[in-house]
Design a protein that fits this description.
The complex is a heterodimer of chains A (553) and B (314). With 553 residues, chain A is of the alpha+beta class. Chain A contains 20 helices and 17 strands. At the A-B interface, helix 1, helix 3, helix 19 and helix 20 of A face helix 3 and helix 16 of B.
Chain lengths: 553, 314
């Protein structure tokens, strides 16, 4: 009896295996990853190529059979906002989809869980036609998983001439991985991104201790000491856990291309680099004097940092400002005397205030490996449609009189409204991010004027102004991370392990007694190199020696 | 009259076929059918996913497109620098749980059993159960509010009394203590239910006999109640041993922070970290290793229990 039972169980398991494999095998056989070929595929034969050089079927009058394209959109959980079905998705369907016989389906991607969501879709072969991510290593990892198909530039240029004209240089510069044409991009007006990041400092606290806004690390710590002596809060600090640029201010005046190539990496903290050592020593000193938030390793998200700032435990807080932010209102509700100014930078004396300079691209997009030639064409046509200034304007600003009014300079200024055409809480960015990363109004000056009206909460225009002036004065200190033209495979392999080891090391090194620092730092460096950092450095060094990298000015 | 006829109850000569029993009890088989399907799909079909621990698994390529690499993934996992610490910590945390959390419900059940005031007994039982229904995320948040060094209520009290703040959750040794203590608090009430039920089933005659022999309350507990629930304790122990390689993932995630890496690197945390880094093959291999050890432990402890004269589980 027992034998029979175990036999039955084995049979059941085998059946399960077969069933699972059968399913996959089937879909693999019927759905081979399509390669972009210049010749129209079988299904297109009914549609004679019209106009042009005839290499691609012309769909400008609409597709003969309805084509459904799936477009991903970040779901940030805005209250009362249905990301896949709202005024703008309906308008896109009417204005773009219906005339061309295309159905545009939006697929919600939870912002905080995007990689897992995409991975599940990819595994089930139900991913949207565009697969995207803001960071290059993540995009490369999708490519590496086989989730995307190569891009045919001529095809993009044929179906999306306006988009191609805008983005050709960027795509040709950044879009290849190991020689394959992998990605297309949205453009990025990065100046705006820089001054939208505002670090607030408590002006009323500065007044109380009779000090100016600090401009160097030394001054900052003097301020923090004065705050401490006066019984106020400390300098805000949180453990760097991702997008590693914490060390930029501590690099010092000299940096070589080789150092840039080896150490600048948003995904891997350069623990063994001199700049990081300087950074850790500075914070260790401050920690032991009680000048920075001593529970920095518990501040792992924006909410934690914000809570400490608005409750008066710390005197500084950095964030992307928007006119609907609740930081300032909560702060003044808690402390009616609170006043804030902008802290521009606090690099140590004599060090340039280096900052992370964005490459010219915003969103990084690839085409799903399962997408057909028609779907590809429709996606490119969609990008082209969105690149038309009128369409982009409506997506970014909505409807005059309902969501915005023109001011005396002809700049659209948004206002609070409850119209049906109300924009999403981040001004529909998650729709138009496919073609550009920041709203632009003309030249830098026009952008600045418009952003001032559109970003600052009532009465806080000066924050944007000060931030803008600080950024412009420091513009020369941007550091561009070199881009490797090959996949740095050890990064994908080790970055997760290194990240957790980094968090452990940084916490321990900042908290240790100054006398223990040297030994502990040497110990962690050794562990870090063993845990994969040496492999990453070696691989990057080899690519650097071979010249397989790009530094774009 | 027919009801009293004993003849049909005698064992039938010769065996009946499966069809006979199925016809006779088809309603029961129908009832058990859906749970069986559920079990089959979610517990057995899911086994096929284990195959990715033998593949260099790429999501878009699926089971068939990914390259078969034999035991390479396991080699990689077993030589990973975090593997041994994780194994050690998993065992350490679970052994500590076994030592401190396992006896608590038994002691509590014995104590509750002695409470004679009905309303007091039920109120305390309910209070003891409550923590079981809190999610670890909530417990974690509350724990930091209570035990944090800078703002925790306990430490604020200590500091206002002139003492030094105690890093309950923020230094390695204290963290271990707090972790185990919170675990005991969370699980002890719920665990008493089974033991109380077992105690209720004991034959009252035994107590009367003990009383006649002159046994006091303590001796009754020691010589009647405890031996009476021994088999229940053994079954619970076997089930606990099966979990010794697992451990509560949410509990560690909710209570750990970057300052206490020494004991919080465990197998479930590694599985989670690797999964988040898209290392599906490694995650699966480690999870498989963990389950296999768990199953082995169940078999070993079952054998052991049988040798001790208990029924065991299998």
């Amino acid at each position: 009896m027992k034998k029979a039972l175990s036999l039955l169980l084995v049979a059941i398991m085998l059946l399960g295996l077969l069933a699972a494999c059968g399913g996959d095998g089937g879909s693999a056989a019927t759905n081979p990853p399509s390669n972009p070929t210049k010749a129209p595929e079988g299904g297109d034969a009914t549609q004679p190529p019209a106009g042009g050089d005839g290499a691609y079927p012309d769909y400008s009058n609409g597709f003969p059979e309805n084509v459904t394209i799936q477009i991903p959109v970040y779901d940030r959980g805005f209250e009362g906002w249905d990301v896949t079905n709202n005024y703008y998705t309906k308008w896109i369907q009417e204005a773009f989809g219906d005339p061309l016989n295309v159905t545009v389906e939006y697929v919600a991607i939870p912002r905080g869980d995007e990689v897992n969501t995409f991975m599940q879709y990819i595994a089930a072969h139900t991913a949207p036609d565009i697969i995207f991510h803001y960071d290059m290593p993540a995009a490369v990892s999708y490519w590496d998983q086989g989730a995307m198909q190569p891009i045919d530039y001529d095809e993009v240029a044929f179906y999306a001439p306006t988009y191609w004209a805008n983005m050709e240089d960027t795509i040709k510069t950044y879009g290849t991985v190991g020689g394959d044409q992998a990605f297309i991009f949205a453009s990025r007006y990065s100046l705006g991104t820089y001054y939208q990041w505002v670090t607030l400092i408590r002006q009323d606290w500065l007044d109380q201790v009779n000090m100016e806004i600090p401009t160097t690390w030394e001054e900052a710590m003097a301020v923090s000491q004065a705050w401490k002596d006066a019984g106020l809060g400390t300098w805000g600090y949180s453990l760097p856990t991702s997008s590693f640029t914490f060390e930029y201010g501590f690099i010092g005046p000299e940096i070589t291309d080789q150092e840039k190539a080896l150490y600048l990496d948003l995904n891997v903290a350069p623990l063994t680099w001199k700049a990081t050592e300087n950074y850790l020593r500075a914070y260790n000193d401050a920690y032991n004097k009680g000048l920075v938030d001593t529970e920095f390793y518990l501040n792992l998200d924006d909410a934690a940092n914000k809570a400490k700032f608005v409750s008066g435990q710390v005197g500084t807080y950095g964030f992307y400002i928007a006119n609907n932010t609740d930081v300032l209102s909560t702060l003044t509700a808690n402390d009616p005397n609170a006043k804030v100014s902008v802290l521009v930078s606090a690099a140590p004396e004599g060090n340039p205030a280096y900052y992370y300079e964005y490459p010219a691209y915003g969103m990084i997009m690839g085409i799903n490996a399962d997408s057909t030639a028609e779907e590809r064409a429709a996606v490119y046509m969609f990008l082209d449609w969105m690149s038309q200034p009128d369409n982009l304007f409506k997506l970014e600003h909505g409807v005059e009189g309902e969501t915005f009014n023109y001011d005396e300079n002809g700049i659209p200024v948004h206002f609070d409204n409850t119209a049906e055409s109300k924009l999403s809480n981040n001004n529909n960015k998650d729709y138009w991010c496919l073609v550009e990363e920041a709203v632009t109004y003309g030249d830098d000056e026009a952008n600045f004027q418009a952003n001032k009206s559109n970003w600052a909460p009532e009465g806080y225009d000066y924050l944007i102004e000060d931030s803008y002036n600080g950024v412009v004065a420091n513009l020369d200190n941007g550091l561009i991370t070199p881009i490797f033209t090959e996949v740095v495979s050890s990064t994908a392999e080790y970055s997760a392990d290194l990240n957790s080891l980094w968090q452990e090391a940084c916490t321990a090194l900042v908290r240790c007694a100054p006398s223990e620092f040297d030994a502990l730092y040497a110990d962690y460096c050794e562990q870090y190199l063993d845990a994969g950092y040496q492999a990453i450095l070696d691989e990057k060094q080899a690519l650097f020696d071979a010249g397989s990298y790009l530094i774009v000015d | 009259m027919g009801k009293n006829n004993k003849a049909p109850r005698l064992p039938m000569p010769g065996k009946k076929g499966a069809a006979y029993y199925f016809r006779r009890d088809w309603q029961l088989y129908l009832l058990v059918f859906l749970p069986m399907v559920h079990l089959f799909i979610f517990k057995y079909l899911a086994y096929s996913g284990l195959s990715i621990s033998f593949l260099d698994y790429k999501v878009a390529k699926g089971y068939f497109g990914s390259k078969f690499v034999g035991l390479d993934i396991f080699k990689k996992v077993f030589t990973h620098r975090n593997f041994l610490p994780a194994l050690r910590n998993t065992l350490l945390l679970n052994v500590l749980d076994l030592v401190f959390s396992f006896p608590m419900p038994i002691i509590l059940a014995l104590l509750l059993n002695e409470v004679r005031v009905k309303w007091f007994k039920s109120v305390s039982q309910t209070m003891l159960y409550l923590p079981h229904f809190l999610s670890w995320v909530v417990i974690g948040a509350v724990a930091y509010q209570l035990f944090g060094v800078n703002n925790g209520i306990i430490n604020s009290l200590i500091k206002s009394g002139g003492g030094e703040a105690i890093p309950f959750l923020q230094s390695d040794g204290w963290w271990l203590f707090t972790y185990v203590a919170i675990g005991v608090w969370q699980t002890m009430g719920w665990g008493t239910i089974i033991y109380l039920a077992a105690i209720t089933n004991l034959n009252p005659d035994l107590y009367e006999a003990a009383k006649v022999d002159g046994a006091n309350r303590w001796q009754q507990t020691l010589h009647v109640t405890l031996p009476g629930i021994r088999s229940t304790i053994v079954v619970m122990l076997i089930m606990q041993l099966g979990k010794i390689m697992g451990g509560s993932f949410e509990r560690i995630l909710a209570l750990s922070n970057a300052a206490v890496p020494k004991y919080s690197t465990t197998i479930p945390m590694l599985v989670y970290d690797w999964f988040r880094a898209n290392k599906f093959s490694e995650s699966t291999a480690l999870g498989l290793f963990q389950s296999v050890i768990g199953v082995l432990l169940v078999f070993v402890s079952d054998k052991f229990a049988k040798r001790m004269g208990e029924d065991g589980l299998l």
